[in-house]
Structures are given as structure tokens and as C-alpha cells.
Amino acid sequence: MLAKDLISDIIPSLKTSDTGVNALAWMEAFRVSHLPIVNNKVFLGLISDADIYDLNSADEPLGNHRLSLIKPYVFAHQHIYDVVEIASRLKLTVVPVLSPDQDYIGVITQNDLLLRFSELIAAPTPGGIIEIELGPRDYALSEIARIVEDADAKVLSLYASQSKATEQLKITIKLNRVDAGGVINAFERYGYKVNAVYSGESQVDDTTRRNYESLMKYLGV
Questions:
Q1: Strands 169-175 and 155-162, bridge-based pairing
Q2: How far is CA 111 from CA 34, 81, 95, 114, in A?
Q3: What is the pLDDT of residues 104-143, one digit of tens each?
Q4: Which of these, 73, 129, 147, 220, has the minimum number of CB atoms within 10 Å of its CB?
Q5: Cβ distance 99 to 134 under 8 Å?
Q6: What whole-number distance in Å separates Cα of residue 88 and Cα of residue 117?
Q7: What phi and psi values does residue 80 have, to the nearest 5 degrees?
Q8: Could you write out the three-class secondary structure of 25-60?
Q9: R_g (Cα) of the chain, nearest Å
């Protein structure tokens, strides 16, 4: 999944002739805290609502102010992981996307990024989640997949993180089935340490669900 496939078709870019007041109105309308300033496809930088609040005269064109703009961006061919990294590190609500020639193409919103990333890790799909722990030398993806498949299940997504203190790897596995009992038993038979198990079943009771549905109906959602 590449950055070019995530670009929003509704978020506008600003020009230096736009005022801070206009920018704040657009930010509020689209529920973002940043917007790009672009002149003739040249990306000049991101402006935030905090930047605009600091202006002495927000009703004047942005080009009249001496702005210290940040210029984060990704190229159209970069992977969604790169987009997540820069959005997370800089706490951005939009990430600008440039062509290989550094022409401005558009932005990726935080909400769209979260939605597409959740699809990438199979978050909307029902299934159990297992977290196992092992040493770096013991990590073999092929063996983990074989154990899961031998237990009549499939790996929908898998990611690894490493503890700085112990250097142990924590492997989180999303399965295609809610009942993870057979897979847990299989891992334990092969000597893997199972740290945590999540069933993947909804824990919302009927009363809570009805209350939620009533609220959504009242709000017109």
C-alpha cells in the first residue's frame, strides 16, 4: 500500500494569498490541525492552527507574515509504513505527498491513514490474537506459520517488537479464527512462551449496544 493510494480528494491546500482566518475555517471544517501551503505545485510547508493563533493579524494573507514552516513529506511511491512513521513522529494530522519531481500531489489525513493501516493489519476481521515471546536467535517466521497452520488456522497479520531491556522479541499474531485454543496448545508444545491471548470477540453486552445504537440514532449518524 503506497502513499499515492492514500491521498485524500477533499482536503484543500492553502496559497500564500489565503488568510489565517480562512485557514482556520478549513481546518475546522475538515477536522485537521494542519494544512499545506502550495504555490504552483511547489510545497512551501505545513502550517498548524497553533501557528495561526500566534499571528498578530490572522485576517491578513499568509504571505504577509514571516512564517517558520515545517516541511515534512513523503514521496508518492513510499510505503504506508513510512507515512505512519512521519505522522507519528511529528504528530501530524495530514502528511503531504510529493511526486518524484517534488511537485505537490495532495495530503494523507490521519483518519484515512488509521483506517487503511487497520485494514493492512486485518483489525476489522474477527479473529483471536496471540502474543508470544522468544529470543532473537529463535525467531523463524516459517516455523511460526507452520505451527499455526498445523493447528488448522491461518496468520492474518504478524508484527514483532523488541524489548530494549531484555532484547527478547514479542511476536503478535492475528488469526483467522476466534477460538485460539488449538494454536495456543501447539505453541506451548513447541516450547514457546505465550504471554497473552485475546479472543477477538466483542465484549459489549446487549444493553450497552442498544444504548449506543439509540445515541447514534439521536445524533442522526
A1: antiparallel
A2: 13, 15, 11, 5
A3: 999 999 999 999 988 888 888 899 999 999 999 999 999 9
A4: 220
A5: no
A6: 13
A7: -60, -30
A8: HHHHHHCCCEEEEEECCEEEEEEEHHHHHCCCCCCC
A9: 23
